[in-house]
Amino acid sequence: MTPDQSRPWIYLQRITFGAVALLALIGSTCADVGLARWAAEHWDGYFGELIQRGNVMIALFLFLTLRAAYELDRMARGAGARPFTRFTYAMTAALMVVPWLSAGGWLGTRPVDVEGLYWQVVTLAVGVVGAGVCAMTRQDRAGTIRDVGTTILVFSYVGFLASFAVQLRCGRNVPDQEGAWLLLIILAVTKSADIGAYLVGTLAGRHKLIPSISPGKTVEGLFGGMMVAAGVSAWCAHYEVSILFARVGSVESAAGGSESAVFRAVVFGLIIALVGQFGDLIESCFKRDARAKDSGHWIPQYGGILDMVDSPIVTVAVGWFLLTTVWNVL
User: Fold this and answer.
1) Under a CB-based contact definition with an 8 Å cutoff, are residues 98 and 116 in contact?
2) By CB distance 3.0 to 4.6 Å, which of 149, 228, 248, 316 could disulfide with 165?
3) For 65-109, how does the pLDDT look when each residue is reduced to its tens digit (9 = 90+)?
4) pLDDT tens, 4-20?
C-alpha cells in the first residue's frame, strides 16, 4: 500500500479512535456525576464527601497520568538520564490525589486546606526535596544534576500540571457537579483543536510552524485548530451546555462593562487551542531528545498515552487559571 493509498485508512483510524475516546470520556463523566449525586443522598461522612467530589474521573486521570509518567520516564532514559522511577510514580500519584483528598476535607477543614493549591504546592515541594534525598542514596554520583532534574520534570510536568484537572473537578467553589461538565468541555475544546489542526494542516498546510521540532505542524493547521476550538467553545456557551461555563460571559469586566458568554467562550477556545498546540510541541522536544517517534504504542496512529494527553496536561492548568484568576468565575 502506497502512502497516498494508506492515508484514508489513517484518517479512519484516527476518527474512529477519537470517537471511541470521546464516548468513553462522556461515559466516565456521566458515571462520575451519577455516583457523586447518589453519594450526596445516601452516604454521609468523610467517605461520602470524597465520593461527591469525584470518583470515576479521578481513577481514570490517575491511571492516565501514571502511564504518561512511565512513558516520559522511559524517554528520559533513552536520552541518557536515570530518573528515580519509583519516587517519580509516587509523587505523580500524590499530586493527582491531593486535590481530591483536600476537597473532601481529609487534609484539614480550614479554607486553605479545602480550596486552591495549598496542598498541591506542599506536595510539589516535598517532591523537590525528596528527589535530592533519592540522589543521596545512590552510590554513583555521576549525572546527579541531570537525574534529579529529570525526576522533578516528570512528576511536575505530568503530575502537577495534570492535577489541575482534578482541581477543576473537585473544587469546593464549583457548584453541584458542574466541575465534571466543565472539565469535559475543556478537554473537548482541547481535542477539537488537535483534530482541527491535523485536518487543516494535512489538507491545506503550506508553511511549517517549527520544523526543527515537529515537521508535520503548519501555521495553517495552528489557525485551523484555533478556529475549530473557538467554534466548539462558543457552541457550548450559546447552548449553555454547562451553566458554569455560561457564567464566564456574565461576570463584569475590569473596565466596568460586560461581555457576552459567546465572546468570552471564543476567547477561551482560542487560548486553549494555542496553548494546547504548544503543549504538543513541548512533548515533541522530549521525543526529539530521546530519538523516539512516539511515547508508546498503545494507540493506533497516535502512539502512547503521553502523545494523547500532551495537550490536555497544559490546557487544564491554563483553563483553571483563566476561570479562577482572569475571569474569577470559580
Assistant:
1) no
2) 316
3) 999 999 999 999 999 999 999 999 999 999 999 999 999 999 998
4) 445 566 666 766 777 78
Q: Which of 62, 282, 59, 58 minimizes the C-alpha distance to 157?
A: 282
Would you list the DSSP string of 219-268?
HHHHHHHHHHHHHHHHHHHHTTSSHHHHGGGTSBPTTS-B--HHHHHHHH
Q: Of the spans 213-217, 228-232, 292-296, which averages the highest pLDDT?
A: 228-232
SS3 (DSSP) at 299: strand
Q: If DSSP codes are grouped into helix, strand and coil, which group holds residue 218?
A: strand
Q: CA geometry: angle at 175 spanning 170 and 180, to 5°? A: 45
Residues 6+ apart with CB under 8 A from 218: 201, 205, 206, 207, 208, 209
Query: Cα–Cα distance between 228 and 220 in angstroms, integer?
Result: 12
Q: How far is the C-alpha of 322 from the C-alpha of 285, rounded, in Å?
A: 26
| Angle between the N-to-C axes of helices 144-154 and 85-103, in degrees from 0 to 180, rounded to the nearest 10 | 30
Amino acid sitting at position 302: Y
- Give the mean model confidence (pLDDT) for residues 41-53: 91
Give start and end residues of each alpha helix (H) in the chain.
3-42, 45-52, 56-78, 85-103, 111-114, 118-137, 144-154, 161-170, 178-204, 219-238, 243-246, 261-290, 305-321
Residue 308's closest CA among 13, 54, 18, 9?
Answer: 18
Sequence-separated (6 or more) residues with CB below 8 Å from residue 252:
258
